[in-house]
Amino acid sequence: MVNQRVDGGWQACRSDSSGGSNSSGESSKDSSRCSTPLPDSDRGDRLRDKMRRRTESGDRWFSLEFFPPRTASGAVNLISRFDRMGAGGPLFIDVTWHPAGDPGSDKETSSMMIASTAVNYCGLESVLHLTCCNQTREKITGYLAKAKHLGLKNIMALRGDLISVNQLVVSRWTCPFVLQGYQSLRQLVKLSKLEVPEDITKVIEPIKDNDAAIRNYGIHLAVEMCSILLESGNVPGLHFYTLNREVATMEVLRQLGLWLEDPRRPLPWAVSANPKRKVEDVRPIFWASRPKSYIYRTQEWDEFPNGRWGNSSSPAFGELNDYYLFYLKSKSSKEALLQMWGEELKNEQSVFEVFTCYITAQPNQSGHKVMCLPWNDDPLAPETNFLKDQLEKVNRRGVLTINSQPNINGKPSTDPIVGWGPAGGYVFQKAYLEFFTSSENVTALLKVLKKYEPRVNYHIVNVHEQNLTNAADMRPNAVTWGIFPGREIVQPTVVDPVSFMFWKDEAFALWIEQWAKLYEDESPSRMIIKYIHDNYFLVNLVDNDFPLENCLWQVIDDMFELLDAPPELLGTETT
C-alpha cells in the first residue's frame, strides 16, 4: 500500500488498452515542452565523476560486491537483497562474471541479467565484471553491445587468467573479512589457501560452536580495521565483498556511520539507474507499489515524461504476460503465501480478512501475519499509518484497498515520512484511494458521488470493460507535487485515466496469476477468487481540495449508510 465532469451525469468512456504506436507516455505534439530540473541532479552523472566529487568533499562512500546465484529462487532472493541493501546508500555495486554460468546470456542467473536487474529495477549504479580470458574479440564486442543496450555503462574488464594448482602463489592472509561462522571460515581458508592469523585463531577456537559469537567478533574486527583505514585520510571509500550476505555487512556499515538510516528520496517513487531514464520524473500513481512492473512495461520507450505527463492518447505500455520473470515474482514462497492468504477460503469474507490483516499487521486466524498482497509485495509504507484506522474499517466491509495516499499541504521536503526531493522545499499531495469492491457497493457509490462533484474525481472499471469516469476530457490529474528553491514545480505523480485502463488489466490479472493459482483448479478457494475477479470493480477516487480534511472517508461512509438503509432508497440503478 503506498506509500493508497460529466455535466449532470455519467459518461461512458472507451480506451484502447491494447497499446499504440507512441513510444513514450505522451503524444508527439507535447514532446517539445521544456524539461523540469530534476530533484536529483546527479542521476545521469558518470560513476567516476560521483567518486571524484565524494572524494574531494570528504564525503566517504561504500560499495558492495555480489556474485550471480545458482538457482532461479536464488535470483529472486538476491534481488530482494539488492532492495534492502540499496536502502543504505551504496555508491555502486559490483556483479562478478562467472564463466561457468553462461554469464552473458538472458538466463535469470547470468551475470548480465543480475547486473541489468540491479540497474533497471533496483535503481543501483552497477559495475559488471567481464572476464576476457579465452574469449574472441567478436564475443567480447557482443557482450559490450548487449550491456550497453541493457543500460549497463560501467564495465570492469578483467584478464582472468586460468591458474593451475602448481602456479598458485600463496601469501600470508593479512586482510580480515567479516567472519560469519566457524564452518564458513574453514571453507574460505580451504578455497583461498591462506593462513588465519594466530591472534584470531586464539579468539575463535573457544567459541567455534557459537556462530553468533564468531559473527560478532568478525564484525568487531572489520569495524576496527575499517576505522583505521578511514581515519588515515588516505581512503575515501570502502568496497565490501558481501558473499551475497547482508546482516554482517550492514552492521559494520552502521557502526562505521556509513549506512544511511534515513535515506533521502529524490522522487516519491523508486527511480531506475538506466541512463536513458535519467530525466524521467513523472509516473502514474497506479504502479506505486509495483515499480518493477512499470519499468518492465515501459522499457521499450524511446523517451520518458519529464516535467509533466502530457496529454497522451495512446501510451504504448508493453504487455505483462511474463508473471514468472524473477524480478516480478513475489519474494514469498507458495507455502508462505498460502499461510498468509489462506490455505482454504470459505467465502468473500475470508478475502476481506486477508486485506484487513495486512492493514493492521495482526495475525490471521491461522496465526500468521499478512506481510504482502498481490498488489503490494512489501509491508505498508510509513505514510499509510496516517490512514490506518480508516483503511481497517473499510476493508472489513469489502472495500479492498490496494493503493492510497493522505492529503499533504506544504510539508517540508525533509519530512521523514512524506518528504522527497532536495532540502528547502515543500511537498503537497491530494488524497487518493484505490480499491476493489462489489457491484452492489458501486451502485450505492454512484448515488453518493453525485453530491461530491466536482471536488472528487472518480474512475470505475471492471474486467468486462465497463468504464465510468468524471475526469474532464480524460486529462491527467497531478496528485503529488513539490516546490523547491530556484526550480519549477515538480509533479512526479499523476492519476491518468488512459493509463488506468492499462493498469486495470494488470490489477485484475493479479487476482488470478498470484492468488487463484495457489489453489487447485475448480477448488472452492479458487472459485471465490475468480468470482471477485469476474464481478468486482476497480475504483480510484481523488479529493482535489487538498488543504481541507480528506473527504474520501466520508464518501465511503455515505456509501455504507445508503447500503444499510431500506432497499427502496438505493433503488435499482446498476452499473
TrEMBL record:
Its cofactor is FAD. Pathway: One-carbon metabolism; tetrahydrofolate interconversion. PANTHER family: METHYLENETETRAHYDROFOLATE REDUCTASE, METHYLENETETRAHYDROFOLATE REDUCTASE (NADPH). Residues 15-26 have a biased composition (Low complexity). This is Methylenetetrahydrofolate reductase (NAD(P)H). Residues 264-564 form the MTHFR SAM-binding regulatory domain. Residues 40-54 have a biased composition (Basic and acidic residues). Residues 1-54 are annotated as: Disordered. GO terms for molecular function: FAD binding; methylenetetrahydrofolate reductase [NAD(P)H] activity. Belongs to the methylenetetrahydrofolate reductase family. Pfam families: MTHFR (PF02219), MTHFR_C (PF21895). It comes from Oryzias sinensis. One of its GO terms (cellular component) is cytosol. It comes from the Eukaryota. InterPro entries: FAD-linked_oxidoreductase-like (IPR029041), Mehydrof_redctse-like (IPR003171), MTHFR_C (IPR053806). GO terms for biological process: methionine biosynthetic process; tetrahydrofolate interconversion. Keywords: FAD, Flavoprotein, Oxidoreductase.
